[in-house]
Amino acid sequence: MNQNQLDTDLIIAGGGLAGATLALAMARVVPELRVTVVETVPLAPDALPEDYQPSYDARSTALAWGSRLIFEELGLWSAVSEHATPIRHIHVSDRGHFGATRLHAQDHGQEALGYVVDNRWMGLCLMRALLDTGVEWQAPAEVTGMTPTEQGVCVNVLKDGEPLTLTGQCLVVADGGRSGLREKLGFQARTEDYGQNALIANVSTGESHQFVAYERFTDTGPMALLPHGSPKQPGNQSALVWTLSDTALHDILSLSDEQKCRKLQERFGWRLGAFTRIGECYHYPLKLSTVDEAVRPGVALVGNAAHALHPVAGQGFNLALRGLVTLVEQFRQGVDRGVAIGNLSVLGEYQRLHRQDWRQTVQFSDSLIRLFGQPLAPVTLARDAGLMGLDLVPGAKRWFARKAMGTGGRRPVLPLSANVGEARSK
């Protein structure tokens, strides 16, 4: 069987934010290749609402400035920005100590350091864009296994309870780290349990956030409050990420909403006035998960399937997005050279280029947790002096800002043709 007899060229397991973004990037950058997404949710016009109504309890993601640039290249940003709350300032502090630093978008010539976007809204924008492409959607379905072939891969799929197979040049696993597919395919993840949980909720405060994101380190773990709601007017709603031990999480979840607000007030303080409302609470255990070798002939892991980080610095999805762009870059170059996209020379180069980025990002996030988790007085003094030093040393502050904006390392650029880009979404 030759390659033009394959069912498709690229099979993507998972159509969430990572998988859908990869599919759209492929349609924009390598349109001559056929792409099939295997996902539990159908892709159809009648499955997408005409009007988006933001929910108070919607879960959200912090998009770095560098991620905005990627979405612009994909022709997606004009749609996403309709409900993207800008982060114009970042305030980092150490509870009970003098250390603090502040970042301002205007100091870096940007309108924002990042944005907070509801996950559902990003998903809808991606789905609407994909409807105008040739991407095929197998749903409701899931990938259950894969066998290498001379031409690429033979992928086992369970669709509507019935088994079927798809042949292609390459399989990309984009279904997160908890589906079990990664392990079924023989990839080994190294996991380190932080012994903490992230509690996620939206909250309202007596004073406006003024587009400030707060990262507050406490003796029981970090917490973040990100501006949420209107992209135009500073409001009183913020997205909360609260790090808690197992015992503390259990205690907080047992409280009434009014009691939760009081506990949150005790930990965060009064910078935003009184906490007046807390929405539905989600939670998950915090683990650092990485896969050293995330590729093999015909298969690549992306997103949380390849690496899952602590949310302390909001780097997870932004790192995944840069990895997706790097992968698409290599697919484009492979096609131009006449090399199958599942060839290890193509996938190995993707891993080499992306490895430095994820190692630096993991080190940055992990070191923050360890540094601010130390209660010893000498360490406390050193980190507080470091926070103060960021305000006093311009070079150090620029480095920290680049990390926060997702522009501190190699920035992959999609090789789009002249007629593809922001105009494509209009």
From TrEMBL:
Choose any GO biological process term that the UniProt entry carries and state it: ubiquinone biosynthetic process
Does Nucleotide-binding appear among the keywords?
Answer: no
Q: Where in this chain does the record put each FAD-binding domain?
A: 7-330
The question of whether Flavoprotein is a record keyword is answered with yes
Q: Which Gene3D superfamilies match?
A: FAD/NAD(P)-binding domain
Its pathway is: Cofactor biosynthesis; ubiquinone biosynthesis
Q: Which UniProt keywords apply?
A: FAD, Flavoprotein, Monooxygenase, Oxidoreductase
Q: Name one Pfam family in it.
A: FAD_binding_3
The UniProt family comment states:
Belongs to the UbiH/COQ6 family.
Cofactors required:
FAD
Q: What's the protein here called?
A: 2-octaprenyl-6-methoxyphenol hydroxylase
Example of a GO MF term? FAD binding
